[in-house]
Every structure is written in structure tokens, then in C-alpha cells.
TrEMBL record:
<feature type="compositionally biased region" description="Basic and acidic residues">
    <location>
        <begin position="377"/>
        <end position="388"/>
    </location>
</feature>
<dbReference type="GO" id="GO:0034028">
    <property type="term" value="F:5-(carboxyamino)imidazole ribonucleotide synthase activity"/>
</dbReference>
<protein>
    <recommendedName>
        <fullName>N5-carboxyaminoimidazole ribonucleotide synthase</fullName>
        <ecNumber>6.3.4.18</ecNumber>
    </recommendedName>
</protein>
<keyword id="KW-0067">ATP-binding</keyword>
<dbReference type="InterPro" id="IPR040686">
    <property type="entry name" value="PurK_C"/>
</dbReference>
<feature type="binding site">
    <location>
        <position position="143"/>
    </location>
    <ligand>
        <name>ATP</name>
    </ligand>
</feature>
<feature type="binding site">
    <location>
        <position position="185"/>
    </location>
    <ligand>
        <name>ATP</name>
    </ligand>
</feature>
<dbReference type="InterPro" id="IPR011761">
    <property type="entry name" value="ATP-grasp"/>
</dbReference>
<dbReference type="InterPro" id="IPR054350">
    <property type="entry name" value="PurT/PurK_preATP-grasp"/>
</dbReference>
<feature type="binding site">
    <location>
        <begin position="262"/>
        <end position="263"/>
    </location>
    <ligand>
        <name>ATP</name>
    </ligand>
</feature>
<dbReference type="InterPro" id="IPR011054">
    <property type="entry name" value="Rudment_hybrid_motif"/>
</dbReference>
<dbReference type="Pfam" id="PF22660">
    <property type="entry name" value="RS_preATP-grasp-like"/>
</dbReference>
<comment type="pathway">
    <text>Purine metabolism; IMP biosynthesis via de novo pathway; 5-amino-1-(5-phospho-D-ribosyl)imidazole-4-carboxylate from 5-amino-1-(5-phospho-D-ribosyl)imidazole (N5-CAIR route): step 1/2.</text>
</comment>
<dbReference type="InterPro" id="IPR016185">
    <property type="entry name" value="PreATP-grasp_dom_sf"/>
</dbReference>
<comment type="function">
    <text>Catalyzes the ATP-dependent conversion of 5-aminoimidazole ribonucleotide (AIR) and HCO(3)(-) to N5-carboxyaminoimidazole ribonucleotide (N5-CAIR).</text>
</comment>
<dbReference type="Pfam" id="PF02222">
    <property type="entry name" value="ATP-grasp"/>
</dbReference>
<comment type="subunit">
    <text>Homodimer.</text>
</comment>
Amino acid sequence: MTFPKIGVVGGGQLARMMAPAAEALGVGFHVLSEAEGSPAAQVSSQVTVGDYHDYEALLAFARTVDVLTFDHEHVPTEHLEALQAAGVSVQPQPQALVHAQDKLVMRAKMDELGLPNPAWAPVSSTAELAAFGERAGFPLILKTPRGGYDGHGVRVIDSAAEAADWFAEAPGPLLAEEKVDFARELAVMVGRSPSGQTAVWPVVETYQRDGICKEAIAPAPGLPAELAERIAGDVLTVAGALGVTGVMAMELFETPQGYVVNELAMRPHNTGHWTQDGSVTSQFEQHLRAVLDLPLGDPTAKAPFTAMGNVLGAEHEDLYRAYLHVLAHDPQAKVHMYGKSVRPGRKLGHVNVSGADPVEVRARARHAADYIAGTDPDPHPRHGRSDGPARAAGASAAESSARAESTAQTGAGA
Ligand code: ADP
């Protein structure tokens, strides 16, 4: 027997961060990248440049690897089914992946499984939307079932007439949802192998801005144990019922009754980046183990809390000086950059910080990420702890930061 080769469709940051996991596991790692110089192409020795919309390009690539998996969910479902029929090991299988590709399919499945959905309906006209609005109330949320990401394809609608332009363009029905009055957003990730082995990470709290994930913290502070257990059980139900292989994220809204499902992603996910530094097994390693049907790794957290802050592009084009400062200022922060050029709102990297105090680790991760992006100009913030106001109670945090800086200086001099 020989070590298998994995093929990843898509050259983004998720494929990029799978590469070190493949290297450590000793499995072959090939990328089908839409362009030369993509984040994943920069770090992979085996790169094919090709278009994932082109079935022949996908098939030719798939013939060079043992298992085909994905950095994104945009490969047409019919191509995936044709690849499967041609004998390619497509993981996750298209029958599972369609629930992450199509939000209408996902909503129907959640109802079938008895999982908590918001009120929803497929709507094909402003008249149907108005009828749904009568029941669910305005404002409501209107979504394109396919192709949305980072809030693109999600609109808050105050009256049915507002959506006329979307109906004019839409190739099929849109998804109308009740606007959930949630306390906060949560997410849970699971790994599942074709043999049916599963592993669930702790539930995280996520912070979105303009539809983009900005921060996450694991575990979600103050989440009642009973709700955390229910969510872990439910994500296992979904993964088993859908036959998920690889890792899956289930995004949730916490509500007074518990939670409702927002959406599914079947690949490593932004809300799981904390696992790179905060869990025994990262989501990237777990994804590879799962799609290859290897035994799964332990998802246990290594620290009481790990926070992740996204570096989101802003005005500053040259991030290097700020990045140097962050490395020096907080030597415990783990900085991950994606090798991308700066564009406003673009995900350029992220920072993970672990520790005992959720308020402090969150503040440190957010500051490091925002400082690199150029959106937080304060080079020496005092990170508050949860037992005091953020800016005032800095003594112990400042001390530990000073300790950290002197450790780094010692390290650099050695
Ligand atoms: P995307 O596919 O772009 O990630 P989502 O379906 O996750 O889109 O929606 C993006 C954001 O919009 C969510 O994180 C949430 O903040 C908000 N949102 C989506 N659906 C609802 C809803 N039914 N009620 C309230 N807010 C919602």
C-alpha cells in the first residue's frame, strides 16, 4: 500500500492551510487552481491551473489523485455527479454537498430531520414574497439559494416590492426567511469519515460584520452545557443523515428557545480557524484525514479559550510593518497570512490567541488582526479582562504583555 494523493479543487486560503497538514501526514497534495499564484498555488508543489466550471479539466485533474475534495462549494453539482459516475472518489459526495450548495435543499432537509429552522419558504415572485411576509412579518431575509458567500446574496427586505430586481434576474425560486431575533451567532464543526467515524469540536461564538465573519471564540463563553450538548448531538445527526465526509460547519443563531440553523458549509470554515492553534487536531488536518478515510484526530481544545480575529483588507496596501509590530507586541499570538493582495473587505489572514480569559484573548486577537489591517491605530492597547472594564483594568494584562515582550527579546538574542 502507498500513501494516497489528495486533490483539492480551488486555490484559496482553505486549500493553502490544508497543505501543511498534508505535508505532516505525508500524503500527496495537488491543487486545481483557478489562477497561477493563488494562495494555495504559492505553497503547493503540485499545481494545475484550470477552470472548475470545465468538466473535462476536473476529470483530467481527478485522474491524477486518489480523492477529490474542495476549497469552496461552487463546483456545479452536475459535474460532481458525473465525476462520481466516472469512478472518481468525490468527498464530500455531491448528494451531501448539495445541502451546502443550495440553501433551499438545506432548509427542506432540516425540516425533514426535525432540526430547528426559522420560518422559511421558496418564493418565485413578489406576490409569493408578500404572502410569506403576511405570515412571517417584515422585515424579512431574502437569499439566493446558490452562490452566496460572505453576505453576498443575502438581503433584508422591508416590503415585497423591494425585491422585484432579484426576481427579474433569478433563475429559480429564492429563499425567504423570517428575520431571526437572535442573541448571538454560534457555529459548530464536525469531522466525519466515509467509515462513519465522527469528531465534534466545541461550539464557538462568531461575530459577523456586514455579513463577513470578523471574529470567533471557542468555546462560546457562557453557553449552557445542556445547549452545547444538544447542538453537538444535532450536528452529528445532520452529518450522519447527509452522509457528510470531511469537515462540516453548521452556523446557528442562539435564540431564547435554544437555537435555529442558519446554514451549512462542507469544508474547513472560517469559524474553525481557531483549531489550528487551539485544538489537538486542526480542521485542516481533520478534513484530510476524513476524506481519506483515515482514523480521525482528537478535537479537544488545548486551552480554556482560543479567539480568532480576521485580518480584513482596508485602505493600507503594505501590511508588513504592522505585521512586524504585532509579532513583537504579542509573541503568543499566532499569525496566519494568506499571501493575498489587499482589497477592501478581503480576508487576508487571521490571528489566533489562546488563554484563560475570554475577554482578554478576544481583545488581543482582534487588536492584532485590526492592527495588521490598519484599522486599529493603537500600537500598545491595554487588553481588559472579563472582571473589569476593557481599557481600565489593564495592569495584569500589561504585565503579562511586558513579560511576553521580554521573553521574545531573550529568544531573539539567543
Ligand atoms: P452567507 O452564505 O453569505 O454566509 P448567511 O446565510 O450566513 O450568508 O447570512 C449572512 C449573515 O446574514 C448571517 O451571518 C446573519 O448575520 C444574517 N442572517 C442570515 N439569515 C438571517 C436570518 N434568517 N435572520 C437574521 N439574520 C440573518
